[in-house]
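Researcher: Here's the sequence for the chain we discussed earlier.
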Amino acid sequence: MIILGIETSCDETGLCIYDSKKGIIINEIYSQAKIHSIYGGVVPNIASKNHTKKIIPLIKKIIKKSLIKINNIQLIAYTYGPGLSSSLIIGTSFALTLSYLYKKPCIPINHLEAHILSIMLSKKKPNFPFISLIVSGAHTNLVITKNFNKYKTIGQTLDDSAGETLDKIANLIELKYPGGEKIYKLSKKGKYKFNFPKPILKNNFNFSFSGLKTHIYNFIKKKKITKQFKCDIAYSLQETIIDILIYKSFKASKKYKIKNICIVGGVSSNIRLRKKIKKMAKKKKINIFFPPKKLCTDNAAMIAYTGYIKYITKKKIKKNLKIKINPNLTI
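Model: Thanks. This is the structure I predict for it:
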């Protein structure tokens, strides 16, 4: 089966052609990071305008490079939430238009579920059940993945996400958006000098990063900002967030007696996070899984794959050309 995946939940325009036997045929992403770096974050109306501008040239590109015609595509999968409503509506209307014109079945996909299943596109795949830690610029969730289509959320952020906190603190120390990777690079020259708070660490499986962000904001205001100070802030912040993520993940693993933990989402590409959690997992005899780095951030490959799984497990797809999005969708 050949599936077209469409991803426009935020500021990445992603299109992918996925073959159920051969795997990913082509996976292209148009990033708007440079555009939004001027503003220190994603501007919704600018994001939607760029999706509109780039999505048709992008589908022409993947068709030309893959040599697969739209008529040969058997299923269209698209992100309908969560995300920015102005961005979601571009991908949704584009998918439904293709569905109508070429008479292809079309299926809406939960962006968070797609992140969870992105792990299945890696060479090393986990067995069910497994703990999924979704950690990105917009989400920080702990989910028990029992099987395809069977999920239980046990923890989520009560305010800011881990990725959002990294971006905002990066902005405070004069690093351009997106800040996660820049924080990591800066941290390599820093030391663990500042013992920042770890909110609701032992209370439950939920996350809270707004207090940490406010604490660091007030801390920075009182200090003279030097190059080394920035490096030490970056290191201390990164370690604090990583420690919280690891603690909660292992705590969930122990409570629910699940030995497989999958880390997905944009922040899962962080090298320090990968090294530290793998080291601790080895001691605790827990299996850790990460998707390929190209599939950590928002991408259409995970949307196409999830669409395929939905199709083969549910079989029936209702023909509905109504534009339906859900910016606040959860697992």
